[in-house]
C-alpha cells in the first residue's frame, strides 16, 4: 500500500497545465478520480490505496518497447547467423540470450499490467460496488424499473426501504432548508411548454453529441465510443508506445471539451466503428436530451418533460416576490422529478433518465450579497478545492468558510452560507466528511454570466461525483425570461428619502452631424449615444481642449472626426425615488438520487458473523435516514412475547416511528443480521413481559428498558433529541451470555 | 328556501330508470348534482337550497307552448276579423284579450326563467367558488403555471401555502396508510415503456372522443360540444317544448355512455358546428389521453408519461411478495405524478393535465377477503349510496360499515376496511362528513372483472366529485401482466400437510373419436376437454344411463353424438402440497389535488370584521393540514418585543413547527385577518417579555402562556396530541379590552 494518494493527480495536472487546452480538469478528476478501495471494517483506512505512479507506467512502456526492438534485432541476427552457416554452439548461445530477453519482456509486461490495473484501484472498487449494489438490489432498496419486461436502461424504482430513505432525506431537506431558512416552497408541473425552455436555453443547448451506425441506425454517444477506445487501448494493449499512451490519456482528459468536429476527427483518426456491428459511423451531431411530447391534441403545442425544476421558480418570480412582501432577499425551493433522455445511460444509479431534484433559488440584491446568518457557518472547516489549487496541481485542503470568503476564494457571503448549509446537510445525513469536498469551477467550466460556482463532490467507487451544485448565476435567468416573456422580473428598492444621482447625458447635435456625415449620420449618432461614462468624459475633455477628436464608428468601419459643435456631453443631477434592478440568484441544486447512492456506499460495511463463518452486511445509516427505525423481535416463539411485541410495535407506530416485527422462528442472530442489512439502527428483543432489551446496530450494545418506555426512548434517539451514548448512561446495560446475542 | 333536496334527483332517476339506457346515473349525479349554496357562516344550513321541482318546469313549458299557440290562433283570428270588416269595438275587444294573453305568457316565461336558473343553485355556487378561488390565487395557494407566458390550460403550480398543504396531506397519508397499515411503499418513474401500458389496456382504451374543425383543425371534445348545446338550449331557449326539453335532459344524462357513432349522429342531428368558427366538424374519433414520448434517441422505443401509478406496483408484484416473506395479504403504495393529456381541460383545479396520485394495491387471497382489523371500522356510520338506492331513486343514507358488509352491500371485509379508513382519512383532513358520501358503482360502470367498486365523492360547488376510488379489481391486473410478460405473477399457499383434492379428469379416447369424426376430431377433443365440472358430470351421468349423448361443439357450429366409448370422465383424488393462484387486488386510489381543492371549499368561510365594514376570509384548516401552524406578532413595533418574537419563532422552527413572523407596523387586527386567510390556526402576540397571548383562529379565544412554554404548547396542539379545548382548560384566558383584539 502506497499512501501517495495525489501523486498521480499532480502529475496529470501539471502535464495538462502545459497543454493548450486546460479545460479538462473536471473530466480528469472524474476519470482518474481518487478512487479508493474501501475497507468496510476499518473506515479509517478508506483513503489509502494500492498505487503505482504513472511515471513508473511510462518507464515500463519505454522498457517494453526497447526490449521488443532488441528482441526483434536479435531474432534477425540469429536468422543471419543461420543463413551464414554459423556454428551450432554460436547459434545456441544466441538463442539462449534471446530467450532470456523474452523472459525479461514478459516480466516487464506483467509489471505493466499490474501497474495499469492498480492505478485507480479499479478491481477493488468494482468488487466493493458489486457488494453494495447486490445488497441494495436483494433487499429492494432499488429495482430496475419494468424488470418483468426486461427493463428500460436508466430507469430505476425505489423499493420499500429505498423509498423510505428517500422520503426521510427529503423530509430532512425540508426541515433543514425550507423550514429553517423560511423558504417559499412551490410545486410546478413536469410538462413544460417549449417557450419556457427556449428562453432558458435548453431547447438549443441541452444536447449530447451522438453518432449513428450508418447501416442499422443504432445510436451511440460519440464521447463514450472515444473513451472506450482509449481505455481499452491503455488497459489491454501493452504494445502501444509511451507516447501513444500519453496521447490517449490526454484525449481522455479533454473529452468533455471536444467539439463535434474534433470528436468526429478523432473517431476517424482511430478508425472507430460501431461496436455492435463494426459498421462505419456517421459524423457526430447534437441530440437534445429532453423528452419531447405534445400538449393537447392539436399537435401544434410542443412540450418537454422538464430537465430541471428551477425554471418553474423563475417564471413565478413576480408572484413570489409579492408574496414575500416585495422584499429581498428571499429563497424559493422546489422538490420534484426531472428528466434527461440519455443516449445510452451508464454508471447505474448515478446516471438515470428520471430523477428527483431539490433546488433552491435564493434571490438577492446584486449590490449586497451579505447574509444575516453568515456568522453561523463562518467557522466551519472542511475540504475545499479552490480554482488556484486545481490549476497549480495541489490537492483539496481544509479551509474555514470564513477564511475562504475573506481571502476572496468564495465570491460572497450568501454563496458561502449555502456551501456551509450544504456541508451540514450532507454530513448529518451520514456522508463521510473525509470523502466530501467542495470543488470550485474553473473559469472555463462556468457559464459566462456566473459569478462563482462550487460543486459538493462525494467520493464513491465511481470517483468524485458531483452531487450538489451551488452557483451564483447572477441575473441571467430572470433576464432571459424577462426578454422572452416581456414580463418585468425585477425588484425595486424604495429609498427612504429621494436620492440625488448624477447621470451622464449625451446629446448629439443632429443638424451639425447631418451636414457633416449625410447618409452616415444615423450610425454616428448611435455610436455617440452608446459611449460609456469613461469614453464620454474623455471625449468631453478632448473636445474642450482640442475642439475636435477622432472617433471610431464600428458600424461604419471607419474613424470620423467629431467637432465640439456636434455633441454636448454633461453630467446632470436627478432625484430618484427608487432603484429598479434584476436580482441575482444563488442556486443550490441537489441531485437527491446521487446523494442517496453515495450515502449507501458510505454507510455500507461488512463484519464477520459471531461464528466467523461469513461476512455480514451492515448499513450504518443514522436514525434520521434509516428506512425503518426499529425492529421488534420476540426472543422465542411464544404467545406472551408476541403480544408484547405487538403492543410495542403499535406504540411505536402511534408515535410515528417506522418499525418492523419479525415473529419468524429464525434464530435471533439471523434476525439481527437481516435487520442490520436494512440499516435498522435499533432492535427491541422481547425476552420478558415487563422489560425488554434494545440493541444498537453498530456497537451491538444492549440496554434493558421497561416495555412502556420503549416507544419514548426510540422516538427520542430516532429524532435526534438524544444520542445512543446518552441512552447508555440512563439505562442498565444488558449483558446476557444467553443465545439472544449470538450476532 | 325549500329543503326538498332530493326531489329533483328522484324524479330524474325514476324517469331514467324507465329508459332503455340506465347507465347514466354517474353523469347525472354530477350534472344535476346536489349542489348547495353554501353559507360559510352557518355551515349547518349547507344542505338546503332554493328549489323548484322539474315537474314545475315541465308544466311551465307546457303552459308556455299552449299560451303561444293560443296567442297565434287569436292573432290569426284578429287578422280575419279585420279582413272580414268586423266592427272596431269587436276588434278592440279581441286585441285587448290578446294583450292580456301576452302578459300571461310573459309571466309564465319569467316563472320558467326563475325555475331554470334556481335548479342547481348555479349562481350562488359560482359566486362562492369565485370567492374561494380568488382567495386561493391571491394568497398563492395555486398559480396558473407559466403565467408570464400566458399559461397552459390544465397546468397549475402549488404556491407556498398550497405546497405546504399538499406536503401535510401527503405526510398524513403516509402515517395513516403506509405506516399504520405496514404497507410497502415504492417510487417508480413517470416515463413508462409502451409494452406496460399495452398490457394494462391504456394504449388501446385510455381515450376521449374528439371532433375537429374541418377547416382549421381545432380540436374539441365531442361530448363537451353536445353538452354545451343541450345546456344552452335548456337554459336560454324558452321556446322549446316540454318534450324537447326532456329529450335534451335525457341526452345530458346519457352523455358518458354514447358511442362515437351515437355522439356523431347527435351532433349532426342538432346541427352543431365548431364554436369558434361555425365551420363543420369531423366525425368523432378516439384521442389517446397519454402524453407520448420517445425513450432514447433511436425513435424505436415509444414511451408514455404514466396515466396512473398503479402499474409500477403490479409489475413489481413478484419482488414485493418476496420482500413480504412470500405471504399474503400485503399492500404496496405509491405517491407520484400522473398525466392525462386532456383535449380541452375545464373545471379549473379539478380537471388537470398533471396531478398527484396516491395509490394502494392491497393483494389478497381471492378465497379469503377477511381483514384482521375489520372490527376497528365496523361500527363507523356515514353516508353510503349503494347501487339499490341509486336504481330505485332513493338518496344516500347513513349506514354502518358492519351492516353494509353483513347485508352483502359491500362485497367483502377488506373492501369495507379500506372504505372505513378512507372515511377516517378524509374527515380528519377536514372534509365535512355531511358532504362526503361513498357511492357504489352500478354494474354497467364497473369493468367486467371488478367485484365491487365504491367512490368517495365529496360535494363541492361543481357537484359531487369523485376523489377516491376504492375498487376490488379481482385478479385482472396481475393476469394481464402475466399474459404479456410471461412472468408468473402468482402467490403460493403451502399446505401444512399435503391436501387430498378431487380433480376432474376428462380423457378423450382419441382412436374412437378419430374414427367417428375424422378431420373434425381435434375440435371435438378440445371441446370435451374444455367442459367445466358440471357439464362433464352431466355427460358422465347421461353416458352411463343412455350410452350416448348430444354434444354441441361451438367451433364446428354443430351438435355431435358422443358415445360412452369415446371419453372417460372421472374424479380422481390427488395429493397437493400447495395452491398456486393469482391474488385479487383491492385498490384505493386518491386524487390528491381534488381532495385538496374540496378541502379548500369545505374550509372556507367569511365573517364580518370587527368594525362590520367588510367580510374577512378564513380557512378553517385543522392544524394537521394548515400550511403554517403559527404566526408570531409583536403587538407593537418595539425592539424588545421583536426580540421575543424572534426567539419564539426560532424555538418553533427547532421543534419542526412551521411559523411566520409578521413584524410590519400593520394593526394587529389586520395581521390576524391576513393570517386567518392563510388558515393559520394559532397566532402568538408578544405584548410583554415574559408571557404572550395565543389566539385560536375560529373561536378567537386567547390564552396567556409563558414565553418558554409557547413552542411546546403549539407543538402539542398542532400535532393533535391535545385539542384547543384541553389547552383552554390549562392556561388562563386573556381577556384584554385593548387594541390587540380588534378583529
From TrEMBL, chains A, B:
Which enzyme type, at the first EC level?
A: ligase
Protein EC? 6.1.1.14
Chain segments annotated as coiled-coil in the UniProt record: none
PROSITE patterns for this protein: AA_TRNA_LIGASE_II, WHEP_TRS_1, WHEP_TRS_2
Q: Which terms in the Gene Ontology molecular function aspect does this entry carry?
A: ATP binding; glycine-tRNA ligase activity; transferase activity
What quaternary structure, including any partners, is listed in this protein's UniProt entry?
Answer: Homodimer.
> What is this protein called in UniProt?
glycine--tRNA ligase
Q: Which organism is it from?
A: Tagetes erecta (African marigold)
